[in-house]
Design brief:
This protein has 122 residues and is mostly beta strands. 0% of the residues lie in helices and 48% in strands. Strands 2, 4, 5, 6, 9, 10 and 11 form a seven-stranded mixed beta sheet that branches. It has a four-stranded antiparallel beta sheet with strand order 1-3-8-7, with no helix packed on it. It is globular and about 40 Å long.
Length: 122
């Protein structure tokens, strides 16, 4: 079964840091771009960041530029999202998904994970 699993979401104080992981089972991530998306209560899903299959290209939403960093370790079949200087507005369920293309258009993505909750609050 082809599956992506997110982990690392917790409650963190404003200004804190977290690293989310997106691990694959049943298939290798080498051939796919991976995107991170988030959805806050009452809001539409938002593209956060994506990384090309080689890791050579990355893209970020304006709201997270300079604070979040996406990376991948194809040997571990895992993609990471390092989140620094977290703000309450970063609170959301974070999802990862795979794409044969590149970009933050969620319609390109498949094999969505179940999500991991990130809560930024004092």
């Amino acid at each position: 079964q082809l599956q992506l699993v997110e982990s690392g979401g917790v409650l963190v104080q404003p200004g804190g840091s977290l690293r989310l992981s997106c691990s694959a089972s049943g298939f290798t991530l080498d051939y796919y771009a991976i995107g991170w998306f988030r959805q806050a209560p009452g809001k539409e899903r938002e593209g956060v960041s994506c990384i090309s299959n080689s890791g050579g290209y990355t893209n970020y939403a304006d709201s997270v530029k300079g604070r979040f960093t996406i990376s991948r370790d194809n040997a571990k079949n895992t993609v990471y999202l390092q989140m620094n200087s977290l703000k309450p507005e970063d609170t959301a369920v974070y999802y990862c998904a795979a794409s044969r293309g590149y970009g933050l258009d969620s319609r390109r993505y498949f094999n969505w994970g179940q999500g991991t909750q990130v809560t930024v609050s004092s």
